[in-house]
Amino acid sequence: MNIATPISHACCDHSFEPEHLHATVSQLFKPSGVDGVYGRTGAYESVIEALAALISSHRPQDAEVFRFAPVMPRASLEKQGYLNSFPQLIGAVSTLTGSDRDISKSAAKYENGGDWTEDLKPSDLVLAPAACYPIYPIAAGRGIVPDEGYVFDVAADCFRHEPSRHVDRFQSFRMREYVRIGTPQQIQDFREPWVERAKGIADAIGLSYIVEVANDPFFGRVGTMMANQQREDALKFELLVPVRSAQSPTACMSFNYHKEHFGEVWGLHNAAGQVLHTGCVAFGMDRLAVALFVTHGAKIADWPAGVRQALRL
Ligand code: ATP
Ligand code: ZN
């Protein structure tokens, strides 16, 4: 039998970050042994809950609430073109299959010093890389979209394969979104005021920020062209907060216009037969929480009274 070797925690230690960051985050997170995946303290989770409540207080009227699993159908991700755009970020679920005998043979490989993972087979699930993806097929499944369109409030634990030792980049993190489905005008009327509303939320919790046009991390050479086009068309804005440094601030919220992409993929259309557009406002819950602790300190009791009041902490 193998003797377990102690797991080195050096891979997820934040000591290379500036001293103040290191000191703050080491009080909030316990290393798991894998970069970008942490155990979170009760104090940290109380801030996540407070942020969720604050965001809920801005929930658009008539928004329908859905909470999604951290996994979603692999077929959905394939259908929406994720393999072309962000293959580098995918995490897929694989399992041991076959008879009990097959499974115990595979499992025994570990004890015998072999590689049990070579027997894993891809399942029909992937880890959800964004909270809004499961909502489009749900909306499309209802048939013709009413003229007023839809607004949804969604959230999920998300996974992106971007291991990093930086305190603002996780592999597993919480995302909350408000999603709009409608005509181009309806998406614009939704997104623009949200940029202002989001600034108000950041002001209320004492975060400094800039809002800038941005791009998604599209993969490869074609991806660079897609990213440039996305910027040129101003399809994505981010609210960036100085977390690690003022020079490279961290995207804590994003305001996205997908144009007809999801409408075409899922067949979202109105009674006139128009393909509908979609947009979403995404809140990176873990990044917002980290930003709060880095800005106001590791002890919530010492945070400015106005910030604690806004968060009811
Ligand atoms: P970035 O440019 O920083 O990689 P993104 O453009 O890929 O972010 P979105 O796809 O817009 O991010 O995701 C919505 C929000 O989810 C982001 O604004 C951010 O707050 C959060 N987020 C995205 N990736 C991560 C991550 N790896 N760790 C923590 N939060 C994340
Ligand atoms: Zn989204």
Question: Which key phrases capture this entry?
Answer:
BirA Bifunctional Protein, domain 2, disordered N terminus, alpha+beta, 11 helices, 7-stranded mixed sheet, binds zinc ion, 313 residues, binds adenosine-5'-triphosphate, globular, 3-stranded antiparallel sheet
User: Biggest sheet: strands, sense, closure?
Assistant: 7 strands, mixed
Bound molecules: adenosine-5'-triphosphate, zinc ion
Could you spell the SSE succession in H and E letters?
HEEHEEHHEHEHEEHEHEEHEHH
Overall morphology: globular
Mean pLDDT across residues: 94
CATH class: Alpha Beta
CATH architecture: 2-Layer Sandwich
> Please, what is the CATH homologous superfamily?
Bira Bifunctional Protein, Domain 2
Strand content: 15-25%
For the largest sheet, list the strands in their spatial order.
3-7-8-12-11-10-9
> Helicity, in percent?
25-40%
CATH fold name: BirA Bifunctional Protein, domain 2
- How many helical stretches? 11
Calculate Rg over CA atoms. Answer: 21 Å
Q: What kind of assembly state do the chains in view correspond to?
A: single chain
Describe the structure.
This protein has a single domain, classed as BirA Bifunctional Protein, domain 2 (2-Layer Sandwich), CATH 3.30.930.10. Helices cover 36% and strands 23% of the residues. It is built from eleven helices and twelve strands. The protein has helices at residues 19-28, 42-56, 74-79, 82-85, 100-111, 135-140, 184-204, 220-232, 261-266, 285-296, 305-311; strands spanning 29-31, 38-40, 64-67, 71-73, 92-95, 121-127, 150-159, 172-182, 210-213, 236-241, 250-259, 277-284. The N and C termini lie far apart (50 Å). It binds adenosine-5'-triphosphate and zinc ion. Adenosine-5'-triphosphate (ATP) binds next to β8, β11, β12 and α10. Residues 130, 132, 177, 256, 280, 282 line the site of zinc ion.
